[in-house]
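Supplementary notes (optional reading)

For those who missed the lab, this is the record we used. Protein: Thioredoxin domain-containing protein 6 isoform X3. Length: 279 residues.
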Amino acid sequence: MLSSKGLTVVDVYQGWCGPCKPVVSLFQKMRIEVGLDLLHFALAEADCLDVLEKYRGRCEPTFLFYAIKDEALSDEDECFSHKKEDGDDEDAVSSEKACTLAVIKPDAVVHGKTDEIIMKIQEAGFDILTNEERTMTEAEMRLFYQHRAGEEAFEKLVHHMCSGPSHLLILTRTEGTEDVVTAWQTLMGPCDPNVARREQPDSLRAQYGTEMPFNAVHGSRDSEDARRELALLFPSFKFSDQVPEAPLGLEAKGEGPGEALCSPEDVDKAACDQGEAVR
């Protein structure tokens, strides 16, 4: 991650207090505005890395900033690519297929329908790269649904999405010629459950939704929207020439978007060579 073009911000936190959550929404908004490929985030626990020893025991937020310029990118890229080839990349799974975001909403989760919906998703020919249960914050949902801020039902939608845990899934398509975004939209059915029951009675919203906004599932509108939503809810999800990499096996000690991960070896090496702390 530290070899990525652009600016990488590392939140150096203490194990007893966890990452600095209040800045998450601000960082995510900045990332969407400046470009998903130009601003990246990561976490590093000071107690776990010797190179971060001087930051241990501090109670104030501490951030490290790493900038990679275009002319330096090729050398850095080569160094990291050789390192990756030498060892197994056990912390990420890659796919040459496009991905989209799927959310099983709180209304479906609270009624115990999560497992049924996941089974139907898999039976429909989707691969689930990541399945994470998370209770969303109001700030996250206001940013997530910012394109609907002018709608009358906006406040009710935000409140609903924060009312309990959701399941966040990254989907790929394993069979058929239909692209993953369109296929997921088809499986969900019309947004309004009442319309879905009339027009697509076999769709997920027809079966598990009740009324707006309690329509059981969410999906990205198109590939661009999928890219934005995945970057917002899964900051460590990487895009590289349409080859996505979803993190597996690494978990942040905190919760919520903005808490990207990098390996201790990468932080150790990069911090020694080029890190500059800003507190």
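If you only remember one thing from this example: Confidence is low (pLDDT under 50) at residues 70-95, 240-279.
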